[in-house]
Amino acid sequence: MATLTREETQNLIQEVLEVYPDKAKKDRAKHLAVNDQSIEQSKKCIISNRKSQPGVMTVRGCAYAGSKGVVWGPIKDMVHISHGPVGCGAYSRAGRRNYYVGHTGVNTFGTMNFTSDFQEKDIVFGGDKKLAKLITEINELFPLVKGISVQSECPIGLIGDDIEAVSKKMGKELDKPIVPVRCEGFRGVSQSLGHHIANDAIRDWVIGNRDGDTSFETTKYDVAVIGDYNIGGDAWASRILLEEMGLRVVAQWSGDGTLSEMELTPKVKLNLIHCYRSMNYISRFMEEKYGVPWMEYNFFGPTKIAESLRKIAAFFDETIQANAEKVIEKYTAEYEAIIAKYRPRLEGKKVMLYVGGLRPRHVIGAYEDLGMEVVGTGYEFAHNDDYDRTIKEMGDATLLYDDVTGYEFEEFVKKVKPDLIGSGIKEKYIFQKMGVPFRQMHSWDYSGPYHGYDGFAIFARDMDMTVNNPCWKSMQAPWQKPAEGEAEAVAASA
Amino acid sequence: MPNVMIRKNDAGDLLFYVAKKDMEETISSVEMDTPETWGGDVVLTDGSRWYIDPISPPPTFPTTLRFKRGDE
């Protein structure tokens, strides 16, 4: 099917909205838009970061998911206590595949689940004593733990436990940072507020820890990678490019990151932000307090990588700039071979995305490098500033959908008929059963890394094996398929 | 009276950022912007007006300041 025109897309949105009652229709209409590259500010065409409609299916997470699952969870040498009932911790354990190096249970704790396992009596009498006991136990069992964060689940806020007081007291007793995070799940409309709360907790309890300490030897090429969660090894694939350029990566936030890396981050020369949505708050803070500038970059696909490497190098002197060119040149043959191999197989295929954080706009470049076209994109929990950045990346008259509902997404797919959908696990099996090739783009469908030049090779391979998988031709049972010539015979006899 | 973080963007314009309101706008004009003082009526590109008592000497950006709504 040819790409939709502006009117057709507008009509499609209207058609999909028809089923809603008036009030819901009015609200949902604000979240769906046809992209217009001439618009400077997204708030003129799309509303985001609002409460989801009751009664529709949404795939959003909660503040606890944003804090424990995204920002704090990957910090490997700290224990993150899921403070409250046992389920939240169990279901957010290791699902995001934030890879790390270390001995789990000895000096790293990334894939372990620590919870205070609230029972009825803890709700009635409060859980502060339990928390203090838990922290002491953790320190005894895992003496190499560098710090502990207390990730509140909903009941903590509801019963009014004073986790700050416990944390302060235990922090003094153990002489380790104990960070209380007020990320109760009911706060905010999505996981996005959880990111913000987590950033604020880092600001209040971590960043200033080494302010007077000058023992860390800095160089003029120090940078920090912020907002890369090392999903399937992403941060490693990004880091080597920066190091080959001659920069020194002091900290990784927070994939494969440590507490001391975070404490040292204010001493770097430049903060590099990959996931703007989840970590811009702390970058803004570091810019204000420590004068560390920050910039966004994009390591998906060779075009954007080259663009980003040059942009990063422009902050530094000529040696780094020359090195950046060398790095790009070094990998040119490699990525050209990948494009030569996969582009003919993927050329002209249409993609629809619905993910969170940075991916709905960042991966567009990588698809374009493979000759594919992104015809619709949307975020689970974006704010206006994310859409500001998306409008420029997306083609004219393409679909934008914010916090799309299950129904809307299915209808869009039926009409737009993309060749590939990139979204989450909750959408995956629905669309596969509809016969549409699908990649789970939250944690790269258990593959990865996708960042950097190394990641691009894997990205291209994965897209090819999904789109061109022979199973999509076998969606109809053989006996339901009209045999050659039979279709006409049936039509004639009817 | 929100706390507003003022910072410069790549183009050198001042940005007016209110974290909790999810708002980031460019400042189009500042009443007093001299080497001695900075402040007064501040107009943003979206047309909204804000006010801050003039500060002297001018603050170094980025910084967080407390603004009043201009129409109050």
TrEMBL record, chain A:
It holds the Pfam family Oxidored_nitro. It catalyses: N2 + 8 reduced [2Fe-2S]-[ferredoxin] + 16 ATP + 16 H2O = H2 + 8 oxidized [2Fe-2S]-[ferredoxin] + 2 NH4(+) + 16 ADP + 16 phosphate + 6 H(+). Keywords: ATP-binding, Iron, Iron-sulfur, Metal-binding, Molybdenum, Nitrogen fixation, Nucleotide-binding, Oxidoreductase. The keyword Metal-binding applies. CDD domains: Nitrogenase_MoFe_alpha. GO terms for molecular function: ATP binding; iron-sulfur cluster binding; metal ion binding; nitrogenase activity. This molybdenum-iron protein is part of the nitrogenase complex that catalyzes the key enzymatic reactions in nitrogen fixation. This is Nitrogenase protein alpha chain.
From TrEMBL, chain B:
Coiled coil: none annotated. One of its GO terms (biological process) is nitrogen fixation. InterPro entries: NifT, NifT/FixU_barrel-like_dom_sf. Gene3D superfamilies: NifT/FixU-like. Pfam families: NifT. This is Nitrogen fixation protein FixT.
